[in-house]
Design goal:
This protein has helices at residues 34-107, 114-143, 152-169, 179-193, and strands at residues 15-20, 28-33, 206-208, 211-214, 221-224, 227-229, 236-238, 243-251, 255-263, 266-276, 283-284, 289-293, 304-310, 313-315. The radius of gyration is 41 Å and the shape is flat. It has 4 helices and 14 strands. It folds into 2 domains: 68-193, no CATH class; 206-318, Glucose Permease (Domain IIA) (Distorted Sandwich). Strand 13 (304-310) and strand 14 (313-315) form a beta hairpin. It has 324 residues and is α+β, with helices and mostly antiparallel strands.
């Protein structure tokens, strides 16, 4: 017997086999080599990744579309509420004007009795007062910093507009007894009490602002609870608002100083004065001269240190003062 000679291949071939077993006939085998197997696996993985990415993208698009719809609905609701409020104010104003004309006409007519005229006047006055009180609640909230919808100076403009409305709502210029006149006095007193009057002459420059600063003498950072204003050439100091003098005196920091209580939670303080012309218990008017500018206390030069406190808390005076 002859010995078989030749090379025997040791290289192993890898296949992926599929066997098809039909109901009739023989078994059929399909072989796919290793390279094609890897190619098919990679293609399948890429398809799965593509489908996953497509699904995620579609979900993000859907979510963004939903958010846009919600935002649009919220904006429409806000605009609708604003429109209703504007309509309400316009209707109230028209009703005031119509009632004023009606009462004026009734007063000159001999047909309507004095009792009926008085009834119309009472209803009209009550309507005006209710309208004013409703708006004043908002204005007072703004003035104490309790509203995010309106700044103090925007509230101040609303207050002045309200006073003009009340004046125009009076049935006669010499009216001094009606509820409307009483409400006009109340609003005017409130406006005069607010510390808005710039307390020095001929200078609106702020030499040192409110907040933390490097102290000019002690040379370390500390809170500055007011503003430094004024020029030596114009020494007169004026009350920022009507009120009662509740404190005067001298200490090492403020030097000569005056404190005025304006009511409604407001106080103003005037420091480094050379002198003052008011005493504790005095009532002062807005814009009344109360002191002379100086350089007393912890000070590096002639100026006015001015503070406003709201419910006992130092507040930036520039939020309230109106430059003149």
């Amino acid at each position: 017997m002859k010995k078989m000679t030749g090379k025997i291949s040791t290289k192993r071939r890898n296949y992926l086999s599929f066997m098809l077993v039909p109901h009739q006939g023989g078994v059929k085998t399909i072989r796919i080599n290793n390279y094609r197997t890897k190619l098919l696996s990679f293609t399948a993985m890429m398809m799965i990744a593509l489908l996953t990415l497509t699904g995620y993208t579609l979900s993000v698009v859907k979510e963004n579309k939903t958010l846009k719809i919600q935002h649009k609905q919220e904006m429409e609701a806000i605009l609708e509420q604003k429109a209703r409020l504007e309509d309400y104010i316009a209707n109230q104003t028209n009703q005031l004007i119509e009632n004023a004309a009606l009462i004026t006409a009734a007063s000159t007519s001999n047909i309507i009795s004095e009792q009926a005229i008085q009834q119309y006047q009472t209803e009209y006055e009550n309507l005006v007062v209710a309208y004013v009180d409703n708006n004043m609640d908002t204005i007072k909230k703004v003035s104490r910093g309790g509203s995010k919808e309106m700044t103090f100076k925007e509230g101040l403009a609303e207050l002045r507009s309200l006073i003009e409305l009340v004046k125009s709502a009076k049935l006669s210029e010499d009216d001094t007894k009606s509820k409307i006149h009483t409400k006009e006095v109340e609003l005017t007193n409130y406006l005069n009490a607010l510390p808005t009057y710039w307390p020095v002459d001929n200078s609106t420059t702020i030499h040192s602002g409110f907040g933390k600063r490097l102290h000019p003498i002690y040379k370390y950072y500390r809170s500055h609870d007011g503003i430094d204003i004024g020029l030596k050439a114009y020494p007169n100091i004026y009350a920022a608002g009507a009120g009662k003098v509740v404190e005067t005196g001298r200490n090492s920091g403020y030097g000569n100083y005056v404190v005025i209580d304006h009511g409604y939670g407001f106080k103003s303080l005037y420091a480094h004065l050379s002198s003052y012309s008011v005493k504790v218990g005095d009532w002062v008017k807005k814009g009344q001269k109360i002191a002379k500018m100086g350089n007393t206390g912890t000070s590096t030069g002639t100026h006015l240190h001015f503070e406003i406190h709201v419910n006992g808390v130092p507040t930036n005076p520039t939020n309230y003062l109106e430059k003149r």
